[in-house]
Amino acid sequence: MKFRKFLLILIIPVLATCSTGQEIPQAVSIQSTESLGVAQDERPTQPAPDTIKGAATLPTSRTVTLAPTATSKPSLAKDAWMEMPAVPGGVSDRMREVYARGLELGNDPKRFSVIGDCQNVSSYFLSVFDQPGEFSLGEEYAYLQPTIDHYQDSFSRTSLAVKGGFNAAAVISPLRADPEACNKIESPLDCELRTWKPSVVFVSMETWWSEKPAEEYDKYMRRVIDRILETGTVPIIATKADNLEGDHSINATIAQI
Fold first, then answer.
1. pLDDT digits (tens, 9 = 90+) for 157-168
2. Distance between CA 218 and CA 226 in Å, rounded?
3. pLDDT range class, residue 209, cuts 50, 70, 90
4. Is 5 left (phi over 0), alpha (psi -120 to 50) or beta?
5. Residue 137 and residue 83: Cα distance in Å, rounded?
6. Degrees, nearest 5: CA angle 227-231-235
7. Which residues in 2-34 are b (16+ Cβ under 10 Å) and which e?
């Protein structure tokens, strides 16, 4: 019997990066996160689907007006992220509000999704917890069994927003979405949130261009997180295990977000 340990954590390092060669996604326009917290009727809108040749009918977006991630907050001190606990002391009132709002919008309290690269392919990441008898929590982690029972069928599900080479830019690009499962002009992220309607989502974006600055990662990642929050879904953000950039600036950026 395989022995596995399971913790739901807010900042969770994974084993290794997917590869040193990064897939470069097609260009995708980036909207400043400062504009993502405004009321829906003030947002720039895309053309109606029926005006786009061959476009499928898109559902009405589930939108929650929330303060964007770019809201001014004190910057963390250098390397402060290394001192942060892997398991935080509790869930903030703000995230409880997001969760409750998501349930009002139709999110399923018994489902979670995963957004990320090859580290998050279900067969490597969490799928064993959908297989009773294939893992043991031991006495120390036995209290987590009700959590595993609660989220059954999410652990082994193939996410529409997980793929080798995916990074924070790719998951918001409609050009990278599965054409058989997703609507036209729908990104992998939006497709996953629409089809599965999770109440919680793991976000693990290790893959990045080593020559691109952390500021670029920050810009794309904030858009990913803002979109998740808009749908009333609680993000669980993961740090990465490698340091290809050389100064740990990506993990520092993740911690700041």
1. 999 999 888 888
2. 12
3. low
4. beta
5. 27
6. 65
7. eeeebeeebbeebeebbeeebbebeebeeeebe
